[in-house]
């Protein structure tokens, strides 16, 4: 029997290319179409991992075996000539999600086509259509003759200061092709950012490329298939270099804190294969021409971009342009970091939105409202006279008088300026900056601007939206929407803390648990796999990990809770995506950090170094930024010790996954015992049955990490409940650290109703309070509208904690079994009694879509479930008797399904498929 439900996926470290099939009435797979998350070009992983999905359609489908063929040409693959690798039939029951390529060694620029067939209990599939990838430049020596070019100086119209102004650099070169081109690829490193053109055509749809790194440690190159862009005869290559993170926005300013790298530069190879089998490589050298006297007069991530259309150079990136007045590019020093293929898709314009209003403010000034705090830029359409200047200033909110409020942006000037050339309608948006904003002040616009003159272009890393959530509570739904907008806005080749002020840094602590929640909403595996590399590269030789990575700010403060993100993100990638390789690659560096911390700060079983405490605890007064009341603050050593025990537990898990030496496991377990005992002795009040000063966080962390003796857990939890219900009147009192474990722990101990109350309240403090006060993203401060506003970012995600995890795992019941990572087994145990009447959630896992839609009314429950192929599930039903359960209209005991009664719940085992379940309780 032929299975016609196969989907092909190619997976590499930090890159997944997904292909999906269209189903045909026949018995073979037809119409396979690639639905790439990123082009699989320039892969520099010598052992890529391959994977695929079974398309939903055959209930209970789970693969039992597979066969993979990999060939060096499409023609060979079509003839079943697997000259690179033929796995043969390999027994596998879907437990190994990623299959490591095991064929002939792959060479630089090697091309590979592959296909797969699988066997399930229903039989054998046909071959999938072909997938494809190509290798990048694997050896540094192959770049050696490619020189970095640029100009290591400012031009007369530039300025180098705390508020630097540096114009974009334009480079060009003409080449002659005398043969017919079979294939051509461009390998480019353009720092800080670049746009590439061939014969006037922009190559690729990426923006703000490449993704940022610490350029002294590693530099990302991008690869493009440019075959179609080349033409017989003369061709023009052109690039524009923006400043990005390479030419740091604040030059000669706090050099002890802010890392600087140098002036923009580039290195590129154009690899051309001719139809006669010969090759030619065009490289960057001193024959390239350069000017900085183009239309982009300055570009600065904090301050904005200025574009003078009168300075445009028509045809500069086409053959025949007169560049005799341009300078010759200079050879310049290379950045210092190792060259690596960019294994993430990079950023794109992912959505466009229209403004909702434009209001005149007098004297040619208008305020534009986008209706949503967004991240990206504004595209304008304008007609006017030569020299007219349209100035755009951005902000997240307005003053009471209706003007832009910009104090919270600190010294970021966030201003774009467009000077018209005066030739009919002109359309423009910036190239090398982005803004976080809802409102735009428009001045100098010729005539009266209308809504149709503006479009907001939303920019973030290209990735799939994997999750949806809706409930019967409109506040919960609004919080989810705010989280969605906030999360994606802060994906900028790395996760940053905020997108608007003079910070925009990849703080580790913001994502310790947040990355896990985000993974339900976005396919963020490649972004976070890349970020783990950034963290590793930022580690000091003796083992220290900074609070910001890449370390654009030199914040090596030595604490536990911020570096802990290195561990928790690796665990997230394993749990969500079954990616064990990230754990294997980073385990030695995690171990190095732990030895460093223990050697320097472990004293008598306690981790004595903490830096931030439970950051951003709701203060006692709406006017305060940080709490002053000692009763609200949690001891830093308590936090550091408890969190370190949590990391020891993760390292014990990691050691088992990768097969680390037994002595590693013994060390972790001994440390857990030692530190737990010391913690209990130091902080537990045996008379009152709580920890230290009885804050929610002080009691919550040991409870969440299993450090509380079993006979004391109920009493400790009672103190948490009493503090929330009585002391705080049903409001949250935790900061960044406690909130990471709050909602799940309340639910695990039977108080999902209290978690729901915390989430849905619209009075201070809480996420609902933000919604009730007009927020369209997540604030940095619980009281961001009343504390000193200049200290509040209105687009932060660090306070989400475990809220989104709770949405999906505890409200919708979409949770992977820890022993079956990547949703091989799904535990569906929603909190039906939390107070909601309805929850509808979807999640596209690595194995396929998971759906959980439930509603309850008058003691009746209806639950629609979808389990993806290659997975099964255990569902928990609030029915005292199986006689009350109907599955697809049939009584449970007649379906042949395996089930058991446990307390007041019925646990049913489901294979993959779609089910309608009804019960009374």
Automatic annotation (TrEMBL):
UniProt EC number: 3.2.1.40
Gene3D superfamilies xrefs: 1.50.10.10, Galactose-binding domain-like, Immunoglobulins, Maltose phosphorylase, domain 3
InterPro entries: 6-hairpin_glycosidase_sf, 6hp_glycosidase-like_sf, Alpha_rhamnosid, Bac_rhamnosid6H, Bac_rhamnosid_C, Bac_rhamnosid_N, Ig-like_fold, Rhamnosid_concanavalin
Domain Alpha-L-rhamnosidase six-hairpin glycosidase stretches: 465-810
Location of the Alpha-L-rhamnosidase concanavalin-like domain: 362-460
GO biological process: carbohydrate metabolic process
Keywords in alphabetical order: Hydrolase, Signal
Signal peptide feature range: 1-22
Residue intervals of the Bacterial alpha-L-rhamnosidase N-terminal domain: 179-351
Superkingdom of origin: Bacteria
Protein's name in the database: alpha-L-rhamnosidase
Biological source species: Sinomicrobium oceani
Taxonomic classification: Bacteria, Pseudomonadati, Bacteroidota, Flavobacteriia, Flavobacteriales
